[in-house]
Amino acid sequence: MTTLRIDHVSRWFGNVVAVNDITMTIGPGVTGLLGPNGAGKSTLINMMGGFLAPSTGSVTLDDQPVWRNEQIYRHIGVVPEREAMYDFLTGREFVVANAELHGLGSKAAQKALATVEMEYAQDRKVATYSKGMRQRVKMASALVHEPSLLLLDEPFNGMDPRQRMQLMDLLRRMGDEGRTVLFSSHILEEVEQLARHIEVVVAGRHAASGDFRRIRRLMTDRPHRYLVRSSDDRALAAALIADPSTSGIEVDLAEGALRVQAVDFGRFTALLPRVARDHGIRLLTVSPSDESLESVFSYLVAA
Amino acid sequence: MYDPTVARLTYRALLGRRRALILGALPLLLIVISVVVRALTGADDQTAADVLGGFALATMVPIIGVIAGTGAIGPEIDDGSVVYLLSKPLKRPTIIVTKLIVAIAVTMVFSAVPTLVAGLILNGNGQQIAVAYTVAALVASIAYSALFLLLGTVSRHAVVFGLVYALVWEALFGSLVPGARTLSVQQWALAVAHRVAGGDLVTSDVGLTTGAVLLVLVTVLATWYAGQKLRSLTLAGEE
Questions:
Q1: What integer is the mean pLDDT of A268-288?
Q2: To pair with B1 at 20 to 30 A between CA atoms, which of A183, A253, B63, B92?
Q3: Does the keyword Acyltransferase apply (chain B) (predicted)?
Q4: A233 Cβ partners below 8 Å, 6+ apart?
Q5: How far is residue A96's CA from residue A110's CA, in Å, rounded to a whole number?
């Protein structure tokens, strides 16, 4: 069990507050740290990784302080966002060096290189690597000592879809093994695909925490949008608008569907099938059209 | 206090193609000057002392020291790759001491060795001048490496500051302002060299004891402080 605790952490640079009184607990499994660019994600990850002192508050890993405690790196693997990584070495030399710095040998390095499937290019200079290959070698360097906490800052940046999927599989696997994996991203689909649990940071503040669908549902004061197709769209529209849980309906002719805006999430989900049945209308499609993190985001930013 | 992997990474970075060229240029220039001077004026002790003191020790050694000392850590901090050292269970002073040892070795090879060769070319080590300046270059290499390693740890503009120190303080103020000479690695090294050569060809503004004490003090303090700075080195995000 590895638990990373961020307790009332703030960090400011001069007059700029980058992270504002954030408290969160990151446990085993994959957690996505989500927020728009400049939200303070990197600052937060740097504090989690012990590369930046919190201005106030504390960051601890299983009750051990992270800042100024180099022994903590026996348990932490870090995949930084920055590209630079001793370009004059080959991939293998780089990972072996990282293993040696942990007091391990080339066997551990070889295993890590195999895990990220980089053996085929391990004898090429890092300078010749594509962004995705660099990312994987960085990943291997973070895995050599089989850490129980893995911190990744924007790990999918610059990866092509296939590499992205490979890395996602790998992170999922690490999460399933019981490791604590935290990655940051400003791309909603990435977080959506990989992490059930998310922590949302907006403008330096902790905006939300938990299962993203649950968070979304908690925001009952926000209109939910649905795309509905039925056997009789106009009749269904008329019946729905009569109920106070529906605030607006648009007949989208191009899509051949209704765009329904619901005010009361719980009531609407109960209402829709009942109304359809009562009027003898068959529902063909009911899909939440904005159950994406994008909408969670814009809502949180606006709030 | 020494980690072979850190050492390997450091010297491979230092002796990368471009930096190695810069490191090799000044020693080459010194040898060329020595050959030309010897050919034009013949072997002369005073000339030998002037070339070794004026160019080798006053200019070349500090510049090599700047390149090796700041280069041993500055670029890593600049581009962020130092994170791969910092995210390891390694004592920070171990990282600094290891890098210092590499910087000293590189500075010695690229400054003290050519000084000896130049001295032998100039007057065949007459009056121990070549050996004396080589010893000066060796001890100066240690202090410069420590100073510039610290500079590389605390400043992003370490090379500029280092060169300003080396050229303006050591070379210019050192020869114009008497007080500045007391606080000059060059003078401390000369005090040691004076002891080796004897006579009046190699002189220093400070005594041997003062020079030796200050050399040790500066080296130890700079190294200790660099270790402390590395312990709380902050890697700011790119946001």
A1: 89
A2: B63
A3: no
A4: A251, A256, A257, A258
A5: 8
Q: Cβ contacts (< 8 Å) between B238 and chain A: which residues?
A: 42, 81-82
* B6 and B12 Cβ atoms separated by less than 8 Å: no
Kindly list the residues from chain B whose CB atom is less than 8 angstroms away from the CB atom of residue A70: 86, 88-92
Decide if B46 touches A, using CB distance below 8 A: no
Number of CB atoms found within 10 A of residue A64's CB:
11
Q: Which residues of B touch A40 (CB under 8 A)?
A: 239
Tell me whether residue B37 is exposed, middle or buried, using C-beta atoms within 10 angstroms of its C-beta: 0 to 12, 13 to 18, 19 or more: buried
**A81 touching B, CB under 8 A?**
yes
DSSP code of residue A90: B
**Residue A4: which region, alpha, beta or left (left: phi > 0; alpha: psi -120 to 50)?**
beta
Q: Dump pLDDT digits (tens) for A9-53.
A: 999 998 999 999 999 999 999 999 988 888 899 999 999 999 999
Do the Cβ atoms of B206 and B187 come closer than 8 Å?
yes
Distance CA A244, CA A217 (A): 18
Residue whose entry in the numeric block shows the structure tokens 């590189």: B106
How distant, in Å, are the alpha carbons of A96, A290, B57, B63 from that of B134?
Answer: 38, 75, 9, 16
Is A174 strand, coil or helix?
Answer: helix
Task: Please state, for a pLDDT cut of 70, what percent of chain B lies above it.
Answer: 97
Angstrom distance (rounded) from CA A31 to CA A44: 14
Q: List, as one string, the DSSP characters of chain B.
A: ---HHHHHHHHHHHTSHHHHHHHHHHHHHHHHHHHHHHHHH-S-HHHHHHHIIIIIIIIIHHHHHHHHHHHTTHHHHHHSTTHHHHTSS--HHHHHHHHHHHHHHHHIIIIIHHHHHHHHHHHTTGGGHHHHHHHHHHHHHHHHHHHHHHHHHH-TTHHHHHHIIIIIIIIIIHHH-HHHHHT-HHHHHHHHHHHHH-TTTS--SS-HHHHHHHHHHHHHHHHHHHHHHHHT-------
Mean pLDDT for B8-34 is: 92
Full-model pTM: 0.84
Contact state of A76 with B87 under an 8 Å Cβ cutoff: yes
Is the Cβ–Cβ distance between A29 and A180 less than 8 Å? yes
Determine the Cα–Cα distance for residues B10 and A81; give it in Å rounded to an integer: 22
DSSP string, A255-282: TTEEEEEES-HHHHHHHHHHHHHHTTPP
Tell me the nearest-neighbour CA distance from B147 into chain A, angstroms: 24
B206 touches B194 (CB < 8 A)? no
